[in-house]
Amino acid sequence: MILLIYAHPHHSRSIAQRALLEAVIDLPRLTFHPLYDRYPDFAIDVAAEQALMRRAQLVIWQHPLYWYAPPALLKLWYEDVLTRGWAFGEGGDALAGKDCLWVTSTGALPEAYQAGGAHQHDFAAFEPVVKQTARFCKMNWQEPIVVHGAHRIDAAMLAQHAAQYRARLQAWSQAHG
Amino acid sequence: MILLIYAHPHHSRSIAQRALLEAVIDLPRLTFHPLYDRYPDFAIDVAAEQALMRRAQLVIWQHPLYWYAPPALLKLWYEDVLTRGWAFGEGGDALAGKDCLWVTSTGALPEAYQAGGAHQHDFAAFEPVVKQTARFCKMNWQEPIVVHGAHRIDAAMLAQHAAQYRARLQAWSQAHG
After folding, report:
1. Ordered structural domains, chain A, with CATH
2. How many angstroms separate the most distant Cα atoms in chain A?
3. What is the spatial distance between Cα A140 and Cα A135, in angstroms, rounded to a whole number?
């Protein structure tokens, strides 16, 4: 099962995230799990989340990038759900061997992500926080999907990203039939 | 005014953060602002926060590091308070020129932060997310204070970190008399 954990506090205003989502949401074996719909009050049901995670073989964290990082509710999800003795530490093997795919979008164009650009760093500089969260839980980090310029990307380019996302998940499903 | 924004969801269980806090909380001109006490429901009063920030000359973000990043409520604070046209973007100069100091603690010993260690990266690899958040708001990033091994640090070492923290703030106050 592919568990798509979607963290977007303003989904109705979204363009890029919505296009990405619509490209994959009908795939068989995919469970769509929109965190902000499920927990508008930030009160996460840890047991329910852990049960979902146990069933997943591929975990997707899909969200717009806010301040170089996942939105606050997904951050809270990490803190509440990925507990010691379950996800890491002694006996913490519940997620070991699952695949983890990060799908994110940024407002800025790619050239903002370099020394001298608006964000002063290559995009890769912001990856370790999320990547190491997955790896510390012994998940297999997949090559992330990152869509830059989400507010101004043209429709054809966005459609291409969306199609690539769908193809990635289809390929994963075939390989894990 | 020094604005100490403190983000600790489990302050009563804290050792390192509590010691750091107690070392500075009585300093003159310091405003202590415990986010989890103020907003247990995650409903941030943006106008109140922005008014506080306007008055600050030095902003401190103090918190334990959870999953390589600030706790979820501080992440939400970034998203809610640091708005376009106020903290960044056109007309967004409210925080320009203020100093920003990151004070954080980790559970792991320093040697966990290297290739081959439990966290696979030097600690510096996790800094850009927070540092660039400050810089994008045109704040002056100060050398952070990072205390490793918060769960097992000995009392003398912790006292030394705490004294250094106090000395840093006193020196700042003298320079900004």
Report:
1. 2-171 (3.40.50.360)
2. 48
3. 7
**Which residues on A lie below 8 Å from B79 (Cβ)?**
9, 66-67, 71-72
Q: What is the pLDDT of residues A65-94, one digit of tens each?
A: 999 999 999 999 999 999 999 999 999 999
CB contact under 8 A, B133 and A68: yes
- The pTM score is 0.97
d(CA B3, CA B170): 14
**What is the percent of chain A with per-residue pLDDT over 70, rounded to a whole number?**
100
For residues B23-39, one letter each, b for 16 or more C-beta atoms within 10 angstroms of the residue's C-beta and e for the rest, the string is bbeeeeebebbebbeeb
Predicted local distance difference test score (pLDDT) of residue B150: 87
Cβ–Cβ below 8 Å for B119 and A132: yes
ipTM above 0.95 for this complex:
yes
CB of A35 less than 8 A from some CB of B: no
CA distance B106 to B117: 14
- Residues of chain B falling short of pLDDT 50: none
**Beta partners for B103?**
B62, B145
B135: which chain A residues are within 8 Å (Cβ-Cβ)?
120
